[in-house]
Amino acid sequence: MAAKLDDGDDLNETHEINVTPFIDVMLVLLIIFMVAAPLATVDVPVDLPVSTAARTPRPAEPLFLTLKEDLSVIVGEKAVPRAGLAQALDAATGQDREQRVFVRAARTIDYGQLTELMNDLRKAGYLKIALVGLEGEAK
Fold it and tell me: Is residue 51 within 8 Å of 135, Cβ to Cβ?
């Protein structure tokens, strides 16, 4: 006589990996990096004037030239003497004089000083110049 022993357990094991928690963690990390990445960029502090011009798209690797209140010149994040401006720009751009140079100047800079800086850029061969300002309403 044969008998079937049944313990009543009809649960089958599944051998699949649940990826939902992994996807949730990845989405949270993506959001954290999207918020933190713009905050990680280091900029030179300068008091910019307000402009009402339409915003233009920013290139992936912009070259900023900053004229501070004390008339010191900064290429990227490196201070350079006024006489060595052309060499510093050539080093920063790889002698690509077609690259656009974004000029930031403090609000208190005299118009003549800004014009001299732009003349120095033209003498160095950099003719594509963009002035940077803060977005704002017209007064």
Answer: yes
What is the identity of the amino acid at 65? L
Q: Are strands 50-51 and 101-105 parallel, antiparallel or unpaired?
A: unpaired
Q: What is the mean pLDDT of residues 39-66?
A: 74
Per-residue CA distances from 53 to 15, 62, 106 (Å): 60, 19, 18
For residues 118 and 123, give the distance between their C-alpha atoms in angstroms, rounded to a whole number.
Answer: 9
CA 47 to chain CA centroid, Å, is 18
pLDDT, tens digit (0-9, with 9 covering 90-100), for 53-77: 777 677 777 888 888 888 888 888 8
Q: Please provide residue 20's backbone torsions phi and psi, each rounded to the nearest 5 degrees.
A: -60, -45
